Amino acid sequence: MELIRGNGILTTPNPFTFCLAAILMAWRGRRIRKNRGRFESILPSIDKGECFLICFVLNYFTGKRQNEAIALAWATKFATRDSIFDKNFSLLGTGDGKDTPLLLKEGQDVFKFYASGRRFCQGVLATMEMRARHDLLSKLLELVFPRKDTITFEVVMNEDAMDHVMVAVARKKAAKAMQKEERDLQKFASVLAPAPAGKKWVADELAVVAESKEVAGDMITEAVLDQVLGEKAFEKMGKWFISLHFSDQLAGSYKKVLSFKFVLPDANNMADMTKLVALVPFYIDLVGRYKLSSHARSKTDAARTKAAQEAFRELQGVRQETLLRKKAEKKKLMEEAEAKLSAEVLRKKEEKERNRQMKKGAPKVKMLRS
């Protein structure tokens, strides 16, 4: 099976050809002369522009291949035969043929993977966003603002396979930012301060944003705490974890989505994130089977009804504002047309009056008939 395919030209020239051409340009003008019975090689100095060109070309191909190596290492570990995705999804890649590529390359630093064919969900889209290793200027900028390679899994759940579930987990600062910036969390959820009574909970550096403590407690199971989010497990897995965000009220084309965001290890240590990747099929099944209690559901129903009413009033307000704006624009156009017409009528009237005055003031000439 083909592992990767780009969205542009599939064949690229040999990078060494470019490098050789750049070096030859930089070292042009080499002259050899005879001096005191010996040949000396006089090599002109390379100017700054030529040095930058050589560095840029070398970095472009080196960085490009490094990003491809990381993406291929991930696909080899998690999306080939007998891997996590192979065991949990019936269709891997962007098509249904045997020669379908596993990864779609959307740029030198963006790779995508798609899987479908599993109950409770329409499919999962994984997006790998790498450091811009191919861009020399970006690499220099990263010395001041460091970046990490990340992978985001977005699972679109079936409409009938996700109850009123809204929960997010991230480091405390990031969780507070998510609660303020994500529209669904802002409307329905809040940061849970104390841990549920008598229950193991997430590591101290993490915070949970949820619509209710019941949902949070049911979603963050003991198995997840032991493997990833618990105090002891997070000491090892924390460097790869960024966030979880499950919502049945997400703004966009799909409302019911499970989102996972992790840091990508380097190509030689991809197995370090196995437990994190395993969360994807685990939560698809957990959320797909989950049902709220009647008490919690009555509260979530009330919250969604209120939100729907507010959205309707907001839509009505936008429509009313649009209607008033159109009326104002129409009125303005009519006034401008009337003003233009009035000016034309006034001009003709003034011209007629001026002609009349000219005739009145002109000397009268009498004609004598013989």
Automatic annotation (TrEMBL):
Domain of life from the UniProt record: Eukaryota
Ranges annotated as biased composition (Basic and acidic residues): 344-356
Residues annotated as transmembrane: 6-27
GO terms of molecular function: calcium ion binding
GO CC entries: endoplasmic reticulum; membrane
UniProt subcellular location: Membrane
Signal peptide coordinates: none
Biased composition range(s): Basic residues: 357-370
Keywords: Membrane, Transmembrane, Transmembrane helix
Stretch list, region Disordered: 344-370
Any single biological process term in GO: endoplasmic reticulum calcium ion homeostasis
Pfam name, any one: CCDC47
Membrane topology note: Single-pass membrane protein
Primary localisation category: membrane
Name assigned to this protein: Coiled-coil domain-containing protein 47
Source organism of the structure: Aegilops tauschii (Tausch's goatgrass)
